[in-house]
Amino acid sequence: MPFIEHVSYTDVERMALDRVVPALLAHGFFYVDGFLGDLAGSTVLDQVKEMHLSEKLQNGRLAGSVPGINGRKIRGDKIAWVNGSERGCEAISFLLNLIDRLISVCASQLENKAIRERSQAMVACYPGNGAGYVKHVDNPNCDGRCITCIYYLNKKWNPKEHGGVLRIFPEGKPYVADVSPIFDRLLVFWSDRRNPHEVQPSYATRYAITVWYFDSKERAEAKRRFRDLAASTAQQSSSSS
Fold this sequence. Notes:
Blueprint: H1 9-27, E1 29-33, H2 38-53, E2 58-59, H3 71-74, E3 78-82, H4 90-107, E4 115-118, E5 121-126, E6 131-136, E7 145-152, H5 159-162, E8 166-168, E9 177-179, E10 185-190, E11 197-202, E12 206-215, H6 216-240
Antiparallel strand pairs: 1-10, 2-3, 3-5, 4-12, 5-12, 6-11, 7-10, 7-12, 8-9, 8-11
Helix pairs in contact: 1-4, 2-4
């Protein structure tokens, strides 16, 4: 397929060691422009637009519900989860393979992390009606998510006119970092409490693809806690019936 010719694994490996690792260790986040190139990035964008037009994107949900709180005021995106093997997702699959390679090279250099798996890809659209996502942490409770990667797909994006900036509030730093969701930009940051962030209101259609990479030890512990909680809840339910 022609869209795979622009980027080589060697380029990605060099970027991981020379740029991504030092930035994550020093600042907690990193972004690079021109990650795939225009042809490959445009092919990914076409596939995401097709998902949107065919109504495969549904309202994003919150991990937990809070009585009296309108979830759409907290996050206003529409999303779909894909693994890249679906028909019509060939370019998305290539993107995920490259990000996988990037993070796998980084993994041995990033603290004491055992990064061996990731989530499915979350394809997201903010529909341009002022929707955003309030300040939050991706992994506040040690659920295993270690690194967040977001690939942006928005051509001719003007943050002053269109908004939609992702603002990071690095823990312990005297500054914020504003990242515009411009086309073919890849953002990488720690998923835990080091990087609270928000998506500011978007006034034009805003597309992105996000994946989370797991620390295997933390992920296994999170699954154990969930199993123990489920078993305890089932036991309590049985005792009360």
